[in-house]
Amino acid sequence: MSNKSHQPMWKEEGSAPSFPALKETAFADTVIVGGGITGIVSAYLLTKAGKKVVLLESTKLVNGTTGHTTAKVTSQHNLIYDQLIQTIGEQQARLYYEANQEALQWVRRVIQENKIDCDWEDETAFVYTNADKETETVKNEAESYKQLGIAGSLTDTMPWKTPFKEAVSMEGQGQFHPLKFLSPLIQYITENGGEIYESTVAKDIEKGDRQTVITKDGAKAIGDHIVIASHFPFYDDGFYFAKMHAQRSYVIAIKPKTAFPGGMYITAETPTRSVRSARLHGEEVLLIGGEGHKTGKKQGTEENYQALINFAEKEFGIEQLLHSWSAQDLVTLDNIPYIGRLRKDENIYVATGFKKWGMTSSIVSALLLSDLILNKQNRYAELFSPERFTADPSIRNFVKQNSDVAGTFIKGKLDRLFREQEALPPNKGVVINWEGKRAGAFKEEDGTVHIVDTTCTHLGCECEWNEAERTWDCPCHGSRFAVTGEVVEGPAIEPLRKIGRD
Ligand code: FES
């Protein structure tokens, strides 16, 4: 039943056009780094405001997190509002909700005004639990909805008839096909003077009267403003690497045996289960997500897919397993994204740390950053400012996450697995000791062996083998590398060093 490709479903019905790499120097009002939903919508808004944009994407547009989402467009970010009230206060918690609701309404309006056919559906979102320890938290969340004026409540029925102990609903949310939504926006940008470059890896920023993005190949993009929307910021001026950790999660798309009655669902407890319907070639399919874990902290990730398959079989029956893929998300210190100027007096902006809620957070980012660039007031600027620091319970996570990071440097370096190259199992990554150094070996079916130095080229943590994706994953900030060392996912820019014979 398992499918081999691990490719997201969205690409089957939606695609973005191709663009050349930047070879020389490009000029713009704003240079945007990152061709996911944040970068594209920011570029769209600025182009609409009459500004010239240059957008740089390291691989292909919509290839990263945006292409791997479950595409729920919702302000219900699992259980968050009670926690936000406790940590940042009622007023700020309400602002968080309003920012996300505005983002959702913006998406709805753009779809309607431009008649974008992107399978948009209005849905009610539910967080439900079957864990005794979460029933109180779900009830508290429902109380926080009352306090903040959120349309939703504790409920004893859900359209999907699965057993649950408590559930909280949020009305008026939605779901869509992200690539179909973004295609007309990309077209608008290029038809109105915007320039898009793919296969263009941003490497550094040179500050001056104007800001310059330097690419890995030595090309330049010069603008008055730079937006860093590259998932993990490629430019580390704000020390984001110390403030976020990467999480991987998994999605399967199935054709169910039973009809689905609608609604978007997520469990309060872990392992998470997320369910929504979607359409593929006109037929209803279900997207089942969950099984999140810190990147590089788990090796047998094929088990994660199997757990989702087992769940889907039990709940809906699987007529056909269509797709399976995994996504990577970044989590900030206080669970609120970093969106805004890197430093007060500089025109360099960042948007990152959306957790699993990138569809609304990206639009919040694009609306906020375009306002800042256009010198307009935005009442959410302070809430999301990357410079904030709010002492809240997640400070414990901060210490833990970072001691994990520190531990990885040490443990990885001390790891000693003596194995002979000839004894390597085929199609499996193995950590070996190669001339006294930790290395990663992968043997192809035909016997070809690839050996790479597992030291991540970002900041030197040790990568671990990811069985399901067949990549070397870095637990520190989520870089991923092919068995031959090439970068599959940043923030790393340089490949893993190849050693031994190829
Ligand atoms: Fe930062 Fe590997 S991703 S050290």
Please render the helix and strand layout as text.
Layout: E1 25-33, H1 37-48, E2 53-56, E3 72-73, H2 81-88, H3 90-113, E4 121-129, H4 132-148, E5 166-175, H5 178-191, E6 195-197, E7 202-206, E8 211-215, E9 220-228, E10 244-256, E11 264-267, E12 273-280, E13 283-294, H6 302-315, E14 318-332, E15 338-341, E16 348-352, H7 358-373, H8 381-384, H9 394-414, E17 429-434, E18 437-443, E19 449-453, E20 464-466, E21 471-473, E22 480-481, E23 487-489, E24 498-499
Parallel strand pairs: 1-2, 1-9, 2-6, 4-11, 9-16
Antiparallel strand pairs: 3-5, 4-5, 7-8, 8-9, 10-13, 10-14, 11-12, 12-13, 15-16, 17-18, 18-19, 19-24, 20-21, 21-22, 22-23
Helix pairs in contact: 1-5, 1-7, 2-3, 2-4, 3-7
What would you say this structure looks like, in words?
This protein has nine helices and 24 strands. It is α+β, with helices and mostly antiparallel strands and 502 residues long. Among the domains are: 25-69 and 179-242 and 335-386, FAD/NAD(P)-binding domain (3-Layer(bba) Sandwich); 413-501, Rieske [2Fe-2S] iron-sulphur domain (Rieske Iron-sulfur Protein, 3-layer Sandwich), CATH 2.102.10.10. The strands form four sheets. Strands 1, 2, 6, 7, 8, 9, 15 and 16 form an eight-stranded mixed beta sheet that branches. A hairpin with a 2-residue loop joins β12 and β13. The longest helix is centred in the first third of the chain and has 24 residues, at 90-113. The relative contact order is 0.15. Residues 390-403 and 405-421 have low confidence and may be disordered. The structure holds FE2/S2 (inorganic) cluster (FES). FE2/S2 (inorganic) cluster (FES) binds next to loops.
